[in-house]
Amino acid sequence: MITSHTNIPVDDAQTSGGHPRPELAPLTSEEQVLFDSIDRARVPRHIAIIMDGNGRWARERGWADRIRGHEAGSESVRFAVRACGQLGVEALTLYAFSVENWSRPAEEIGALMSLLQSFLVQEADEIQTNNVRVVVSGRIEDIPDGPRQTLEQTIQASASNTGLVLNLALSYGGRTEILDAVKKIASEVQSGELVPADISEDVISARLYHPELPDPDLLIRTSGELRVSNFLLWQIAYTEIYVSPVLWPDFRRKHLYEAILNFQGRERRFGRVSPV
Predict the structure, then answer these.
(1) What percent of the chain is predicted at pLDDT more than 90?
(2) Among 154, 115, 123, which Cα is nearest to 136's?
(3) How many other C-beta atoms lie within 10 A of the C-beta of residue 33?
(4) Residue 224 pLDDT > 90
């Protein structure tokens, strides 16, 4: 979930760092057919995406610097956010930086944080124009001062927007989220605000980072990997999973539409049997 600070030739829509990006290209004829095939009454309320494959994308192009793949992936974020907003998706959660990612080399972490900050600054007008509300799931206090301040400003500036909720999972881990919720519950029990016998799934859910968001209907993972990587472990109990072989920097509207159409072709039973 980052943007370019160098001149990386990704596609015609991307410009080098610091300059506003042009409008996204109109739908291609193939994208239009897919778009028109989507049942707007059954669009997922909440889509979550594990944006995987940035490093592999860079390596395939002969670049040793993984950051180039992250930079290229920022265009995919723009396409996904815009497309979800146009389809009426209520929430889009992007797995941007995990708690495990803090173990990466300090140079890479610094570049990622810088790119995050640049993205937020560069996309400020786009966020407001498209009525997007930005929120964060994760331990935001772990984010360095500069990017964190920009993040907090973005959250505040978009707080009254009523369109798509863009939930950025930053310094996030599914186990960490559950652990933080358990700590809140333990504190409430210790203070007498909560009785252990009253602890239920709803009580736990209410103490997650953003309990107001519906659980994801659809989880998309790019790059073909078959794992959930400690992402939204509580919330994806009955989420439909779609794995795309496409690397994240190459992921475009076409691939999102294909994932949604695949989702709409499934029968969601939530543990029940199919009606006869």
Answers:
(1) 85
(2) 154
(3) 12
(4) yes
Mean pLDDT of 200-225: 98
For residues 156 and 126, the answer to whether their CB atoms sit within 8 Å is no
Which amino acid would we find at residue 6?
A: T
Number of neighbouring beta carbons within 10 Å of residue 144: 13
**What gap in Å lies between CA 171 and CA 180, rounded to an integer?**
13
**From CA 69, how far away is CA 49, in angstroms rounded?**
17
Q: Using an 8 Å Cβ cutoff, are 249 and 63 in contact?
A: no
List the structure tokens of 211: 């309990």
Q: Which residues of 253-272 are buried (b: 16+ CB within 10 A; e: fewer)?
A: bbbbbbbbeebbeeeeeeee
What is the value of pTM for the model shown?
A: 0.90
Distance CA 202, CA 239 (A): 17
d(CA 138, CA 254): 30
Instruction: Show which residues are catalytic.
Output: 52, 101
Set out the domains of the chain in order of their start, with CATH numbers: 41-173+216-264 (3.40.1180.10)
Question: What are the distances in angstroms from CA 93 to CA 81, 125, 145, 192, 212?
Answer: 10, 20, 23, 34, 13
* pLDDT, tens digit (0-9, with 9 covering 90-100), for 140-171: 999 999 999 999 999 999 999 999 999 999 99
Query: What would the two tokens of residue 40 be?
Result: 């707007």
